Amino acid sequence: RQMTPPPKPPAKAPGSPPLPRQNSKTAPPSPPKVIVDKSGRVSFNRVGFLGEGGFARVYEVKDPRGMRYACKVVTKSSLKTKKAKTKLYAEIKIHRSLQHPNIVHFQDCFEDELNVYMTLELCTSGSLMDLLRRRKRFTEPESRFFMVQLIGACHYMHTHQVIHRDLKLGNLFLDTSMNVKVGDFGLAALIEKEGERKKTICGTPNYIAPEVLFDTANGHSFEVDTWSIGVILYTLVVGRPPFQTKDVKAIYKRIRDNEYEFPPDRSPSSNAQNLIQQILTPNPSERPTLHEIVDHAFFTQGTVPSYIPTSAHDAPPDFR
Ligand code: ADP
């Protein structure tokens, strides 16, 4: 397989959450305390701030019946270019077409003079990234539980011709019952023709598949999500991503050379190691299918808990 030299790094920094794009001087004003649709069709009370991403700020809102949602706010001033508009419309079109218990539900979308708003299912327990920071790493039963839900959501997306392209712990949110909800469809792509290949270099360095970086002529497809699933599994059981190092270029070199190891002091089970190795195969056509992944001994020979107790926020639960 022809390997081309690494292209320039994607916009996001390794592992760390994306930097807020605007500094305090140019930060947009907060959306109104009462958010009302241009046509007066809907109204929400803004009750809290949840977080900030590459181009959006996310608030907690309540509708007149007291139902709580997350509300993703994109300022119209950031949508001046055709490219920015196309990207946001693609995110909305893709996200609103998906309905699955492990995908953040897209409730509605509307605008006022200053902003575009997307109301989403509220995930009150943060992301798996936040949880991993507190917990350091997860037990294998917990990891199986999170992975089964993630793979289910991913299988659903793929059967609906959607590639997520940015699966990572920071985009896996948790509801109050510790169920996984895949969010942030900002980099998702729709495969409209069978066999179509995508050429845009995107993703987050630690989780990016080698073909996205080094096979730009051929493009990439659904298997990039499978690769990220392998990186996620490694990260859950080891506590840090497999190719992590000091700078982005070095991460890309390690991805290109398939260079990672299982630290002896926190070595996962041999089944986990074997599955991770199978998924992190450089050639995308040799990666296991999602069905093959859930049929692997790591899942079939170990306990998959039916739920995760909320005590798991602070300490490993005991699944015996
Ligand atoms: P961007 O697409 O700009 O990267 P994200 O969709 O990743 O934005 O959201 C940014 C932050 O907002 C997240 O890291 C998280 O803290 C918070 N957030 C996003 N969606 C939700 C949600 N559905 N429920 C709770 N918090 C959310």
From TrEMBL:
ATP binds at residue 72. Transmembrane segments: none annotated. Residues 4-20 have a biased composition (Pro residues). GO terms for biological process: mitotic spindle organization. It comes from the Eukaryota. GO terms for cellular component: cytoplasm; kinetochore; nucleus; spindle pole; spindle pole body. This is Serine/threonine-protein kinase. The chain holds residues 92 to 411 of 1018 of the full protein. The keyword Nucleotide-binding applies. Belongs to the protein kinase superfamily. Ser/Thr protein kinase family. CDC5/Polo subfamily. It comes from Agrocybe pediades. The keyword Transferase applies. Residues 1-38 are annotated as: Disordered. Residues 44-299 form the Protein kinase domain. GO terms for molecular function: ATP binding; protein serine/threonine kinase activity. Keywords: ATP-binding, Kinase, Nucleotide-binding, Repeat, Serine/threonine-protein kinase, Transferase.
